Amino acid sequence: MNQMKIESLQPRLRLFIPLVLFTLIAVFLFRALSLNPASIPSAMIGRSLPEFELPVLENERLTNNADLIGRSILINVWATWCAACVIEHPFLMRLADSGIPIYGVNYKDQVVGARKWLSDYGDPYVTNIIDQHGKLGFDLGVYGAPETFFVDANGIIQYRHVGIINEDIWTSKLARLYSGLEEGVK
Known about the structure:
CATH architecture of the largest domain: 3-Layer(aba) Sandwich
Number of domains: 2
Radius of gyration: 23 Å
Largest sheet: 5 strands, mixed
CATH class of the largest domain: Alpha Beta
Strand order of the largest sheet: 5-4-3-6-7
Number of helices: 6
Mean pLDDT: 87
Order of helices and strands: HHEEEHEHEHEEH
Strand content: 15-25%
Distance between the termini: 88 Å
Low-confidence stretches: none
CATH superfamily of the largest domain: Glutaredoxin
Helix content: 40-55%
Structural class: alpha/beta
Number of strands: 7
Shape: elongated
């Protein structure tokens, strides 16, 4: 008799398996939604720029990581499909006008569209590296655009900023970091 009761319960218990699985997945996804990608540390901090040889947007000649070494720079990952990049762009123009060297990484974008975008909005970059397939972005650990890397004169990545750089963020945090890079050169 007990055997029969157990056998009759098994089909009913199987009905709860999808509910249990759904609950576990929902808890996992809810936790993931609460994570801020800007707070995820970069594995590249303290490491050299990854080696690369890619064309530049201006004339498609090849450039490599060694061409970026020698002075403290910002490397800004951007794209024409990136709405936040449009918001950030005027402030990058101001930084470039103040003498801060910014190198662009045009990330997973179309060359013709990127050239037009810079023609329309202005070009704050010393040069732009075409990363059409995202390999350099992958090697840098890029999550999306915009992202900006602070690189010292020795080619060591010192800081990564995820998201828009604007006046408030620059003044409250990033200017001090960049000044520290510059002081390390002297």
